[in-house]
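the two lines:
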Amino acid sequence: MVREDVATGGAFLVLGAGLLASGTMLPAGVGGLPGAGFFPQAVGVLMAALAASLAIRGIRHSATSDTNGGDLRAVAVIAALLFAYLALWGTGFFLVRTAVFILLALRFLGRRWLPSLAFSAALVAFVHIAFDAGLNVSLQ
Amino acid sequence: MVTAELLAGLAAVLDWQVLAFLGAGVCLGAVFGALPGLTATMGVAVLTPLTFWVSPEQGLAMLLGIYCGAIPAGGIPAILINVPGTPASIATSWDGYALTRKGKAGLALGINALASAAGQLTSIAFLAFLAFPIASFALRFGPAEYFGLALLGISLMAGVSGDRVLQGMLAGSLGLALALVGLDPMTAYPRYTFGLSEFLDGISFVPVMIGLFGLGEVLSQVSERRARAKAARIEIGRVVPKAADAKSLLGSTLSGAGVGTMVGAIPAAGGDIGSVIAWEQARRTSKDKGQFGKGSLRGLAASCSACNAAIGGAMTTMLTLGIPGDAVSAILIGALLIHGIQPGPLLFANNQAFVFSIVFLLVFACLMIMAVGLLGARPLAKVLSVPPPLLWAGIIVFGTVGSYALNNAVADVWAMYAAGLVGFVFRRARIPLGPLVLGLILGPMMESNLRRALILSGGDWLALVARPIVAVFLAAAVLSIAWPWIRSRRSASRSNLGPPSSA
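prediction for all of em together
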């Protein structure tokens, strides 16, 4: 069994079935013309059929030894930093928040304090000049 | 008479001020194209007001410079860091980034510059000599033809998935599902918005693209390389391809230019669709299909050529019919109108010199960006020697601010981050990412045009197939999906037969 294919197939099967079921709750259309629910149902059927094929193929075939390793803890920390940074969007002090985010991320990734501080200040200054001053994007 | 108009058009362009505006536009366009999140459309839109105080030639020179500079420059981050700078350069990243990983970043950038120029010059030649036939062919496109074109584009999901066809098609179906979010294109009935007004306009594909390819790649590299995150010694290699390589790329470059010009001439279809179709066409006709997506020079040349040829195609439709071929040409029409110039058939009859000026401006812009691309390839490739954590921080910050800048909407940044996580998970599960973007871009086009076509035909599905252009598109779509299976069956039956007897 190829666990990766079975897991992918299973996840998409659930998603496809959900799409199909939710599509039936949308307007079906009138006079033989498709309505708002037609495409969600069609995509749901397509997704479920493809997912079932992948899952079945995964069950039938034997597994290969090609597994993905990697440092998932590092990814989790960076993702958490990103979502914390985004959650604070609109609270003001955009440049300071961005600089702090870059600084923390670089420190976590093993860069030294001073170069990290200099890089984050330079990057934030460039973003301010290019987007805030140049393109009039309201960054808060 | 025509010669006099041609010379007048050339003389207008050879003014140093016009050339200076063109050069400034090309450089600004290169910046807009190379920074993920900033697009050619945004560059032209933001800088259009600056052109109101100058002559039409100078203003148009600057805007065309931005347009012609941004598209090839979009290929630079696609090649170097796997983040397409513009939607048109998605297909460029497939082979371009693979070449960078093989230590051939210089060659990939060189081919990007040369094939882009070749594609654009070919499409300008089409504009100069075949403007009316191309535009009138494009005008034959009704909703049914657009549906056929979108279906053909989506069917290419199988082709761009490499040896993971099922996974690629699943990713494509996820793209189609994401495209359903927002108001129904025909009845404005809200779908999958969960009561949030931010979702009413649907999910923008630019933040999704930045997230999938940019943030997803960063997270993937963080997981793989954290322990040895220091500047690596990067091989840039030669920039200009050898004569033999250049000769072997001629066919795919020209076929990409043809596809790009035709697709670009069709209103609302641009380089993003054209480059994918050209890449797949090059793959299908190539002897080394297995190399496509793994660093094929032909694949790179075809996609670069097509996405730039779409510029000439779009300009053809714009100038001959006054219909925008893409978002940028829609803004250009507005700018021309402000300068008192009405694009359309009368422009060719009454102001031929101005049309020739545009043709020459496009040619000069193309040569300028080619020079920038070739001379700047080595300095640009130095970005790869930046320590990875600094590069990752730059990608994240530019991706974040660029996504926000599109609509000044934080929802776009959420979409980018969510797409980044999906991109990371897909990379780990070895699910191709390209089909997802294809589904997201082409889904709305396919749905709205199918439903419009059915309204026009009174619900008769067979009437769609009866239209010749649609029939050709549908046949090509069926072949595109079925071919990988036919090929694998044929190779399986061949291997079952065993090696031929030597007796």
